[in-house]
Amino acid sequence: MTTNTGRLIGYARVSTAEQDEAYQRDKLISAGVQGRDIYVDQGVSGTKTSRPAWDQMIENGLQPGDTLVVWKLDRMGRNSGHVITTIETLVGRGINVRTLDGIDTTTATGRGMLGMLAVFAQMERDFNSERTRAALNHKREQGIVGGRPRSLDTKQAKLIQRLYDEGEKVPDIARTLKCSRATVYRYLSAKQSTEPTPVD
Predict the structure, then answer these.
(1) Is pTM beyond 0.85 here?
(2) Residues 62/97, Cβ–Cβ less than 8 Å
(3) d(Cα 164, Cα 90) in Å, to the nearest integer?
(4) Domain extents for the chain?
(5) What is the pLDDT of residue 124?
(6) pLDDT tens column, 158-168
(7) Measured between alpha carbons, how far is residue 21 from residues 16, 31, 33, 49, 75 in Å?
(8) Which of 42, 57, 95, 119 could form a disulfide with 61 if both were Cys (CB 3.0 to 4.6 A apart)?
(9) pLDDT 10s digits, 6-39
(10) Domain 8-111 has CATH 3.20.20.100
(11) Residue 47 in contact with residue 165, Cβ under 8 Å?
(12) pLDDT in tens, 29-77
């Protein structure tokens, strides 16, 4: 278990340029975070893999013993599975996580809530994977999908991103779609480099 011996580091994110991060910033300051220690991503959707302020904070701002403070869990990631994985990674680095809606990894109650969320996130990933595999198996049984495809059509390409966002490992995605790991990596890399700025 990590201890709260370092600084409070805040993170805020709003999805569109028209939204104002002032509310989140005020909440973080009220929770004890200094204004100079708040990182803000504006006009950046949670579905984007790369978030400039978040990346800067992770690489240069957070140190072991620090506590990351966010307004709500959904500010941290793309979906529940991604958020839980992110928190576990931070805690593994010796960084505490606190959300203003009740999660605090420095307390037994907060760790218990995080554990329950992790269970539900894994259930969500499992259910989604089972549905996806069942649909693919049904298509294969009908002869719609057969053999090892040399390239991916649009639906399969989107499926790669969806499975990856849900926490599936690249080798498992490759087996599911009967393509090479290199194909999966190549698509994910191309997707990140060409992904437009979202508007939501």
Answers:
(1) no
(2) no
(3) 20
(4) 8-111, 147-194
(5) 61
(6) 888 888 888 88
(7) 10, 16, 15, 20, 11
(8) 57
(9) 899 999 998 776 577 899 999 999 999 999 999 9
(10) no
(11) yes
(12) 999 999 999 999 987 765 555 688 998 998 888 999 999 999 988 888 7
Report how far apart the first and last C-alpha atoms of the chain are (Å, whole number).
38
147-194 folds as: Arc Repressor Mutant, subunit A (1.10.10)
Backbone angles phi, psi at 23, to 5 degrees: -60, -50
Under 8 Å between Cβ of 23 and 39:
no
Residue 66: name the closest of 113, 108, 11, 145 by CA.
11
CA atoms of 9 and 98, how far apart (whole Å): 10
The pair of three-digit structure tokens given for residue 63, joined into one six-digit string: 């140190």
Long-range CB pairs of 54-58 (<8 Å, 24+ gap) are 54/11, 54/13, 57/9, 57/11
Which residue(s) pair with 41 in the sheet? 13
Contacts of 84 (CB under 8 A, 6+ apart): 114, 117, 118, 121
Phi, psi (rounded to 5 degrees) for 149: -65, 140
DSSP result, 130-151: HHHHHHHHHHHHTTSS-S--SS
Q: Is 104 helix (H, G, I), strand (E, B) or coil?
A: strand
Report the amino acid identity of residue 120: F
CB atoms within 10 A of CB 188: 17
Report, as residue numbers or ranges, the catalytic residues: 15
